[in-house]
Design goal:
By secondary structure, the protein is mainly beta. Helices cover 7% and strands 41% of the residues. The longest helix is centred in the N-terminal third of the chain and has 18 residues. The chain is rod-shaped and about 170 Å long.
Length: 672
């Protein structure tokens, strides 16, 4: 038995006690043998009144203490023991064991699971002025650390009864569990003194709990070789109702190796108010049509019980307040004699209002063929309920190739990431166009094509009459410049000296740096008879074509009655009478191997008609702008006439092209 095992140790320590009673005292001081009223009054703090205190405890087993330090983390309070209260002042080297010869307690026996002895029990009635109470305590024992997980499971308990507690209910529990605080529930974690682990684990799930144990075997006062950390016993109560407390400690299985419980002075108090109905976090949107960067938010306010004790309250915000975009913490405070409780929740206002994007059209003048549009050029008073962070436009960069109307998008982003867009038209100035018309130096008829020059008869030169549109301040460059009167003027004169095909390309550049090109081709035949001055060759187109040399004065007579006669030798590759960019202007309408197309009315405001001469079969006709871009295409399909509707076309100069086999004919048409 434990008592037999301890007998030699008891005799040795008894001799030491005789030689030096209360050998070493630390700062802890105990005043033993107090009344029930004194002990109860020492426990009580704010918000609690006590009455009817009783004490069932040997005089030497109870008292008050001060000066708790080191292992004892409670500085003052009351002490209930199963041994000698005054002896507890000694350091841990003192062997605190005393059999007081008193009975145990049924409630404590139930908690320990073993018979109890030397019980010390304090009881009293109390009335709380709040809805919850608590007090702080530490349990210590000489059973530590040598007798854990044994039948010597010394125990204590704090039993409350009253409204809500039909039977005495122990509130001295291991935190987060329903396990009573005892030797076998809080210890070093391993069985000692012939103990078995099942005695500890049998206390409940998770037992034992070494994290709450303080080993004091070589420590200062108190004399107990082990203690628990400071625990808080708490209970929910009904304010102003009467409750009964029973606090007790006892040895288990025998009367040796005493235990005790230290209860902090004034720690039996009501707690700060319990708050009910604290709102959860609230999130609201500003709304689709918000005009401010905020929102009105409402909620149901929390409450705290103040049935018999005044509770004051305050809050940082009220329901219905206006909250800015973002997160704002709302805090409610409730204060009673036991302290202050706070309840907080977050109100988050989310800006989901997209900006109002407003655009305006813009005209961009290029510089050196390039230009950039800024958001400021396109923005026309865009707004947001909070604040606009950025404005951007896309596309923003333009060149001559973009001349005309371009759709751009303005993107408006507010400070909270909401985005909206609008579109605008950017008109880029200018992409120029050009046209070249041959103007012969005189009106002598040579077949009806102003692009044909016959050396020896008729016009011997032609002015390249250029027209550039789309901007201003044009500069001109001709390539090649051979046989031209100038290379950088607007209207050079072409004066050929030898036969051949001559093509000239004009590059016209406006003041914005944009350029365009167009060209014109001349067919030049040298029809002069080298052996007979003032005579030229002509192909007489009879049943048997013959080349004849005739006086220049006789040429006009051959164009009239001799249908099909052409200037030049019959062996020459003849210049056709209908050429690119030509139309019949002067002289009789000669019809040699090809014929002119008829376009009427010209100029035109709406619909015009193309009519082919007899014997000409057209495949298709194409309406083009002056740059050669195809606008409309129609098939003749065996007919000799076609009509085009130019109602939707802009005013200007256009070309109509007719394909006849391998020949292509073009005529100019003007839209008024």
């Amino acid at each position: 038995m434990k008592t037999q095992y301890l007998a030699p140790r008891k005799l040795m320590l008894a001799a030491l006690v005789v030689a030096a009673p209360f050998q070493i005292f630390a700062q802890l001081s105990v005043s033993a043998n107090k009344t029930a009223a004194q002990l109860a009054a020492a426990m009580v703090g704010s918000g609690v009144t006590v009455s009817n205190a009783t004490l069932n405890c040997p005089a030497v087993a109870n008292g008050t203490f001060t000066g708790g330090t080191n292992s004892l983390d409670i500085s003052s309070g009351i002490l209930l023991t199963s041994g000698n209260a005054a002896s507890v002042m000694n350091t841990a080297s003192f062997f605190e064991t005393q059999a007081n010869g008193t009975a145990g307690d049924a409630n404590l026996t139930a908690l320990s699971g073993n018979a109890t002895f030397d019980a010390c029990v304090l009881e009293f009635d109390f009335v709380p002025l709040g809805d919850s109470i608590k007090f702080d305590y530490q349990f210590g024992s000489e059973e530590y650390p040598n007798y854990t997980c044994t039948q010597f499971n010394d125990v204590f308990g704090f039993f409350i009864s009253g409204p809500g507690y039909a039977v005495p209910t122990n509130i001295a529990k291991v935190p987060g569990t329903n396990i009573p605080v005892a030797i076998n529930s809080v210890n070093g974690g391993s069985p000692t003194g012939a103990g078995v682990l099942s005695n500890c684990t049998g206390m409940g799930p998770g037992s034992p709990f070494p994290q709450y144990f303080i080993n004091n075997i070589n420590g200062p006062s108190p004399a107990y070789d082990g203690l628990t950390v400071v625990f808080s016993a708490k209970a929910a109560v009904t304010p102003c109702e009467t409750y009964h407390f029973k606090l007790g400690v006892a040895d288990a299985s025998d009367q040796a190796l005493s235990s005790g419980v230290f209860i902090e002075e004034g720690s039996l108090t009501v707690l700060a108010p319990t708050i009910t109905g604290c709102p959860s976090d609230i999130s609201v949107n500003t709304g689709a049509n918000a005009t401010t960067c905020s929102a009105q938010v409402t909620w149901t306010e929390p409450t705290a019980d103040n049935s018999c004790l005044d509770v004051t309250s305050s809050s940082t915000h009220e329901p219905g307040d206006i909250f800015p975009v973002g997160t704002t913490t709302v805090t409610y405070s409730f204060t009673n004699i036991g302290g202050t409780s706070e309840c907080s929740f977050d109100v988050t206002v989310v800006d989901n209002t997209v900006p109002t994007a407003v655009c305006q059209n813009y005209t961009l003048n290029l510089v050196n063929g390039m230009g950039t549009v800024t958001a400021a050029n396109i923005n026309n008073g865009s707004s947001d309920n909070c604040e606009i962070a950025t404005l951007s436009v896309s596309p923003a960069d333009f060149t001559c190739e973009d001349a005309g109307e371009n759709i751009v998008t303005l993107t408006v982003t507010d400070v909270n990431g909401n985005v909206s867009t609008c579109d605008a038209t950017v008109t880029v100035q200018y992409q120029p166009t050009c046209e070249i018309v041959s103007v012969p130096e005189n009106n002598v008829y040579t077949g009806g094509n102003p692009n044909n020059i016959y050396l020896g008869y008729g016009p011997q030169s032609a002015t390249l009459d250029a027209t550039a549109t789309g901007g201003s301040g044009f500069t001109y460059s001709w390539s090649p410049s051979t046989n031209l009167s100038c290379s950088n003027c607007e209207d050079p004169v072409f004066s050929p000296t030898a036969g051949g095909t001559y093509t000239f390309t004009l590059t016209a550049t406006n003041s914005n740096g944009c350029s365009t090109t167009c060209d014109i081709t001349f067919c030049v035949l040298d029809i002069r008879d080298p052996n007979h001055p003032n005579k030229v060759f002509m192909c007489h187109n009879a049943s048997n074509p013959q080349t004849i040399s005739i006086s220049v004065n006789a040429v006009p007579s051959h164009f009239g009655p001799h249908l099909g006669d052409l200037l030049g030798k019959c062996t020459d590759i003849q210049c056709g009478t209908a050429a690119k960019g030509s139309y019949a202007e002067n002289g009789p309408a000669a019809i040699p191997s090809v014929a002119e197309i008829t376009v009427y009315p010209n100029p035109v405001t709406g619909i015009f008609t193309i009519e082919l001469p007899s014997g000409i079969v057209g495949k298709e006709a194409v309406l083009m702008d002056i740059s050669g871009r195809k606008l409309q295409t129609k098939s003749f399909a065996g007919a000799s006439k076609l009509s085009f509707d130019m109602t939707k076309e802009a005013k200007g100069i256009y070309m109509i092209e007719v394909v006849n086999g391998t020949d292509v004919y073009r005529s100019r048409i003007v839209k008024d």
